[in-house]
Amino acid sequence: MPEQSNDYRVVVFGAGGVGKSSLVLRFVKGTFRDTYIPTVEDTYRQVISCDKSVCTLQITDTTGSHQFPAMQRLSISKGHAFILVYSVTSKQSLEELKPIYQQVIAIKGNIEAIPIMLVGNKSDETQREVETKDGEAQATTWKCAFMETSAKTNHNVTELFQELLNLDKKRNMSLNIDGKRSGKQSRAERLKGKYCGTNEAAPLNQEYSAFGGGEGLQLTI
């Protein structure tokens, strides 16, 4: 299907096996596959609400291989927003995102104007190599948002895509159309928020943080 001028393009990057495709499929189709099938590049589309009208959310699930640098550069140049996925069970998968982030900066320029979400997937796993605080610290350094997810249990999957849309201040976008969710996800869990750096008391599980400039927004789920 050819791209339309009102497509909003989200590009998903990450090493092989971190669960990029599982996150996208869980969001778009409400399904989960437990087997790893390497992806070259897949694109999924979903209608969303955009500036009191509708537009198409185009999600590009990229390859976890480094064999297609030209394809990666093209995806970045055409993308409006980016999801950088690592597995909390693999510190190496977080390290592999660093050159991708640098390439996004090189191609897109003003990084603070670009919606980027750093995502620690497989949060249901008990054997971790990357703690939540380490993911948050990396997001703070990159001045991007952060969330932990589980495609397997459907934890924070819908919230991930909605919060990514919320980061784009130039458009008013929602996954809901006429009060109904456009995807097949269950109802979102209630979000409770507090600002980092304040003395407000609130229970923290540190699974969602949005950082912008020198101040961060801490939400707990």
Automatic annotation (TrEMBL):
Cross-referenced InterPro entries: P-loop_NTPase, Small_GTP-bd, Small_GTPase, Small_GTPase_Ras-type
Keywords: Cell membrane, GTP-binding, Lipoprotein, Membrane, Methylation, Nucleotide-binding, Prenylation
Top-level taxon of the source organism: Eukaryota
Gene3D superfamilies cross-referenced by the UniProt entry: P-loop containing nucleotide triphosphate hydrolases
GO biological process: signal transduction
Bilayer disposition of the protein: Lipid-anchor
MF GO annotations: GTP binding; GTPase activity
Keyword Zinc attached: no
Location(s) in or outside the cell: Cell membrane
One Pfam family of this chain: Ras
A GO cellular component annotation in the UniProt record: plasma membrane
Family listed: Belongs to the small GTPase superfamily. Di-Ras family.
Function summary: Displays low GTPase activity and exists predominantly in the GTP-bound form.
The protein, known as: Small monomeric GTPase
